[in-house]
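Lab channel / #folding
Pinned by the channel admin:
"Please post every new chain as: sequence first, then the C-alpha cells as a reply. Keep commentary short and put observations after the output so the thread stays searchable."

First post following the new format, from NK:
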Amino acid sequence: MTVLTGTMIAGLITIVGLLVIRLPDLTPERPALPDGIVLPAGTQAEAVTFGQGWYAVVTGDQEILIFDAETGNLRQTVVIKADR
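Reply from TO:
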C-alpha cells in the first residue's frame, strides 16, 4: 500500500511538472508592437489589432486609426458613429 501511494504521488508530480514545462511553449508568439507608433496629440489607445501589412489602433475618441506596418504612416481614419 505504501509503495502504491508513493508511486501515485511520484506520477502526479511528474505529470504536473511536464505540464508546467511544456504549456508555455504552446502559447503563440504575439506580434511585436511597432516602436514608431505616433498617435495624434491627446489621443489614447484603447486597443490594437494587426492585419497583413497594417495595424489599427482604436482610440478613446471613438476612432480607428489604420497605419501601414512597414512605414508606420497613417493610412486611414475611421470615425465610429453611435446608432441612435
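NK: The longest strand covers residues 45-51.
TO: also worth noting, The chain has a mean pLDDT of 84.
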